[in-house]
Amino acid sequence: MVVLSEEAGVLPRVCPAVKRNDVASAAARRLLEGMPVLSQLTGPMIARKARPLAGACAAPGDKSISHRALIFGALADGASRVSGLLEGEDVLRTAAAMRALGAEIERDGGDWQVRGGPWRAPNQRLYFGNSGTGVRLVMGAVAGAGVAASFDGDKSLRSRPMGRVLEPLRMMGVTATAQDSRLPVSLEAGDGLKAVSCKLAKPSAQVKSAILLAALGAEGVTRVHEPALCRDHTERMLGAFGADLSFEPDEAGGRFISLRGGQRLRAAEVAVPGDPSSAAFLAAAAVITPGADVTIKNVLVNPLRTGFYQTLKDMGADIAFENQRESCGEPIADIRARHSVLHGVDVPAERAPSMIDEYPILSVVAAFATGETKMNGLEELRVKESDRVASTESGLAANGVDVKSGPDWLRVAGDGSPPAGGGRVKVEHDHRIAMSFLVMGLAARSPVEIDDGAMIATSFPAFVETMSAIGADVGAA
Ligand code: S3P
Questions:
Q1: For a substitution probing ligand 1, which of 230, 356, 387 has the most ligand atoms within 8 Å of its CB?
Q2: CATH superfamily of 2-10+63-271
Q3: According to the model, what pLDDT value does residue 10 have?
Q4: How many Å lie between the centroid of ligand 1 and the Cα of residue 204?
Q5: 39-61+274-476 has CATH 3.65.10.10 classification
Q6: What is the pTM of this model?
Q7: Ligand 1 contacts CB of residue 206 (under 6 A)
Q8: Which of 172, 259, 383, 417 has the fewest CB atoms nearer than 10 Å to its CB?
Q9: For the chain, how far is it from start to end, CA to CA, in angstroms?
Q10: In what order do the strands lie in the sheet with 330-338?
Q11: Is 311's C-beta closer than 6 angstroms to any atom of ligand 1?
């Protein structure tokens, strides 16, 4: 058993161009053809207090499941159909990569059809823009498919650590060329990829998924030990696409995942549910806005993704999962969120994997609560699209919030009344920072401005339209 090493690294970032939802299909076509898409949300934005938020709305398709649906469809025999795909730039980059590797991908009405084929070495570098999930998962899939490929991304992605994926792939026999374990990266799988037994050094679904995707093409049974459970969409989707994998609990709440190499995947239908990480902005907006009562339809409530909602409940928020059901092997529900009187809480480090992308918006909610909210176990936040501990802290401070941070923690204090607001937040080209502070502006005493809304379209292209439809006042500054 090999333990994968820890990686550190804190980084600057930069933004690619993006698009709005109302031009999604045109944008999708351009990206699939490798052409740039110009953002229509670029530039400063502002959010102001509005009437109480009310009504039903939808979050965009889950980003994690959308990437995986395209990758699994491209690997599978036959034609897969994907409904509800997130047509954000990150996912469309993955679609373009799948096409370059040999899959046929078409947008058909509102759905997507993906016909897998034998993968071939692409004749150009695969470019993933801002997307860590896209690049890391496709590295694993390329290794498993036994083709050679080179990978690149924007300035932000170039600064993020890739060693966490390259290290296990090298153990399996892949030749990986990279400087300082950063993009650009070239991979050559060659013949005879070997199964590995490894233990994840951190609860990263991207790393776990890359290993499992490579394992599909390896000789023997790959065994991954995850000491702390993290999102399991890859495992669920492997099953839905006909792969045989097995699970064994360890003694401390983690588990071993075993996957035999050489299995072919079969085409499947995927209905992508709403993204709980995007729905978090809508739920947070409702919880902090007096009089609000909002229902977000059809949201993924996989328990490995719902730590944010649990934390809101712990803070006293009026949150309910209604109409719970299952779709394509994933639990979904309509999430009802109402304005609430909140108190601060200690968020345990063990909860981090189930809410890893939600700390910026939780920090905004915490600024409206009475007392201190201390968030622990945040070291991975330092290597996301921005250093999210730093970008959240400076955004809160710019809006008059009492905030402190340490290497892996953030503490936000409030007195139960709305924070001052009135600040201009540098979003550091991070979509979740941008949306978090626009949400703050909906209920702070003065409007909140962000320096650039361009990155919002990577994960929530219809953010402005969705917010406006429930009564929010958000738009260009
Ligand atoms: C994701 C895993 C998480 C998360 C990211 C999506 C995935 O990253 O932050 O937005 O789809 O596997 P890590 O695996 O680096 O924690």
A1: 356
A2: Enolpyruvate transferase domain (3.65.10.10)
A3: 20
A4: 6
A5: yes
A6: 0.93
A7: yes
A8: 417
A9: 54
A10: 54-58, 293-300, 330-338, 318-327
A11: no
